[in-house]
Design a protein that fits this description.
The complex is a heterodimer of chains A (275) and B (333).
Chain A (H helix, E strand, L loop, with lengths): L8 H9 L6 H24 L6 H11 L4 H26 L5 H39 L2 H7 L4 H39 L4 H11 L2 H27 L4 H33 L4
Chain B lengths: L1 H31 L6 E8 L10 E4 L2 E13 L2 E9 H4 L7 E6 L6 E6 L13 E5 L4 H31 L1 H8 L1 H37 L2 H8 L1 H41 L2 H8 L1 H29 L5 H17 L4
Helix pairs in contact in B: 5-6, 7-8
The chains are: A mainly alpha (275), B alpha/beta (333).
Chain lengths: 275, 333
Amino acid sequence: MKIIRYPTFFDYIEVNYNGMKLPRTTQKFFDEAGAISRFTGRFFHEAFRPRYEIVEFINQCFIIGYRSLPLVGLTGFIMGLVLTMQLRPSLVDYGVESELPAMVGIAIIREIGPVLTALIFAGKIGSSIGAELGSMKVTEQIDAMEVSGTNPYKYLVVTRVLATTLMLPLLVLLGDAISLYGAFMGVNIKTNTSFTLYYTQVFDALAFSDVIPAFVKSFFFGFAVGIIGCFKGFNSSKGTEGVGRSANSAVVVSSLMVFVLDLLAVQVTDLLGLN
Amino acid sequence: MAESRINNLKLGIFTIAGILFLVISLYMIGKDQNLFGSNILISTRMRNAGGLVSGNNVRYSGIQVGTVSEVNLLSDTSIEIIMLINEDAANKILNTSIASLGTEGLIGNRIVNLIAGPGTGRPIREGDVIMGKKTTDTDQMLETLSTTNQNAAELSSELLTAVKRLNGSSGFWRIIENDTLATDLTTTLQNIRKASENTNMLTSDMNGMLNDIKSGNGSAGKILFDTTLATQLGEALSKLNHAASNAAALTEKTDQLLKGIKHDIESGNGPANSILKDSGMVVKLHNTLTNVENSTAAFNDNMKALKHNFLLRGYFRKQEKIKSKDSAFGKPK
């Protein structure tokens, strides 16, 4: 099967640095960035063309989404509880303890929920995809799929990336809900606030500009985790050592990408006047 | 196959739960911002928006009834605030309501507070403009507080100076440490209190007197407030005036008479001159009086002789009996 190579930004600037001696790490960084860009371009090329691997996609959604819920839920619950307990003394100092639910609600919905869930997700799913595809690569299962006439990119990458892209927002939503419940428990450690009052205070403080950007950016987080996990696994080499390295690298790079995308999302949200 | 179906079911529940939370969140936020249900637009005008922006809450007597839709600058002194009011609440808010700016808590977001205005009116309708009221904002409060602080600083400085002067004064501390002074002061105060009580009583009495005078009681009241007395006094004065003029005329006549008498006396005419100036006349008068005296004594003897005369004796006895009878019964004559 012919692999299409799409030109990237770095292909266009190659003429400018051709012949120049760049540091090895810098050159490696640019090479990898270019490769990821090509890999991403191939995803969009493959994703919207038949044949669609629906069954595998649903299977991946179950594995990636549903099976991550306990970890995400537990982490979110603890985070909501701890955040409330940590914020309380400062708010008490300023005499605005009653604003605790509103403050925790905004912090969880806008930032902590999406980023924390994405990081947990990157740790669990990014490494899992990297290791799984890496082991398939080193054991030449991917080559075997190609030989048997199955498009390994469509079957392995497209399904997983679509699953991570769609499942992470759902995990963020459920993680937010569990985290807010944890915050409610935290609020009730020192005071006696009813559940109705707590949720009224939280949603009174929230606006669409808090929920929608956070929800939208979680799609990008999911896509980044999926595409980097698949890229690292798909390009794994050097036997079992390479598999471990791919898994580790997938977690590190996807976690880093989560923060980079978060920074970009804040800038875009600010530009659109939604902050 | 069965496991796959269970997995699909779990995935479905997971997906629906996530979407449900999103929908509920969006609904609750939208409900707070009056995006669902019927709303009407009303507006108010103020001189200062005080940082109010679209989306801030509108409360009527402390209850959330809407949100701020727009804040427009109409002129250099007028800001238009357009509010989106929930229709259910709008039926209970009258067009006489007054809008003012406030904050959620001490340092919270800006809000528009609607309160019931004076009088009666009709429920607000689309496009109504309600009256805006200027409220004291935080800047003004801080400005006032700053002035108060300056005053307090000046006051404390003055107090410090006063205390230093007091500490440096030996006379003041001598007065403070003098025990008898307190007793004297107490006595003085008691006396002042008594004097004050007496003054009060005196004032009360004077008040009563003045009331009596005002009501026309007593001589002073009658003099000051009795109009009939004033009339009578006027009449009396008029009569007195008339009498005085008569007296003057009489005096003049008397004077003329006396002048005439004096002239007669000096010129030797009339009886007065004879009485006052003629010595012979005096002797004749003396002799005449002596003769009258002698004649009277002789007449008395004659009368006694008549009482003993048998013709008149009965009459005199009868008169004595009547006299004695009247004196025995105490009957006056």
